Amino acid sequence: MQSIGFIGAGTVGSALALGLSEKGYPISGIASRTRLSAEKLCRKIPSAKFCNSPQAVVDTADIVFITTPDDTIAEICRSLHWHSNQYVIHCSGAYSLELLQTAQGFGAYTGVLHPLQSFSLQADPVKNLEGITYALEGDDQTLPLLKDMVKVLGGEWIVLKPSDKVAYHVAAVLASNYLVTLIKMATGLWQSFGIPEDKAVKALMPLVRGTLSNIEKAGATNALSGPIARGDCGTVSKHLAALENIAPELIPAYKELGRQTVKIALEKEKPNITGIEKLSRILAN
Where is the signal peptide, in residue numbers (predicted)? Predict the structure, then answer.
């Protein structure tokens, strides 16, 4: 089996290295900007050797993953001497193969593998690789290799065109990062009536989990509940009046989210057209 090296030992790189090693892939070498993180990862993978430079990884691996922050991928790729018929993979969700043009010039095969998952603070990042979707991009030689990896990791894959990448990544940000923002906004409102953030999070999480479960079972449109789904103009007006006093900075976000939610409410079976149209006018002002 072909050996794999990693340049970057952050959360994504570590999860993939551990996951692939657990499934029998030989991890040959690991380098990272932070020496300690690379050495820590090597101790968890018996076959892996600490490399004191990215070039050392390139020189010892058949497949090289660049799992550094997005803004450094192209720079790292340009700084290295790649080998013909070597596989070079990056894991950015927003960027395409253009970041790896230098490696292509050396005759290397290139691809992108982005795990659609949040790895921050996960107790078991390897388990978090199972059952998730991986967004793939690559040439004819690389795509079969990446598909085999995803299959071994227990995931599903989709193949994206370069023009698809940014929309795909925006969707991921909305579903994950901005969910964190929404919870932060919600817990901030709880603090206005004396409930600290930790207790607010504990109280709201069953609601969040229930909503996510409903989305998974019935889809986003059918999962929508609440005042906009009902066309309840009085409640929304009270929300806006309260926000004016408590947190006026949240009003633009509340209105824009409301306007987007109106569109979903109109897709539901037997919508309250009159109430929803009135809500649209309230949220537009």
Answer: none
Please state the pTM of the whole predicted model.
0.91
Q: How far apart are CA 63 and CA 91, in angstroms?
A: 13
Task: Summarize pLDDT for 183-205 with one digit per residue, the tens.
Answer: 999 999 999 999 999 999 999 99
Query: Per-residue DSSP letters for 133-197?
Result: EEEEEE-TTHHHHHHHHHHHHT-EEEE--GGGHHHHHHHHIIIIIHHHHHHHHHHHHHHTTT--H
Domain end, chosen from 132, 160, 188, is at: 160
Q: Same domain for 47 and 11?
A: yes
Helical spans, DSSP H, in 219-272:
220-223, 227-230, 233-246, 251-265
228 burial (CB, 10 Å; 0-12 / 13-18 / 19+) is buried
Contacts of 50 (CB under 8 A, 6+ apart): 29, 30, 31, 35, 38, 39, 42
Domain range enclosing 250: 167-284
Encoded amino acid at 160, one letter = L
* pLDDT tens digit sequence for 86-99: 999 999 999 999 99
Q: Locate tokens 């009046």: which residue?
A: 241
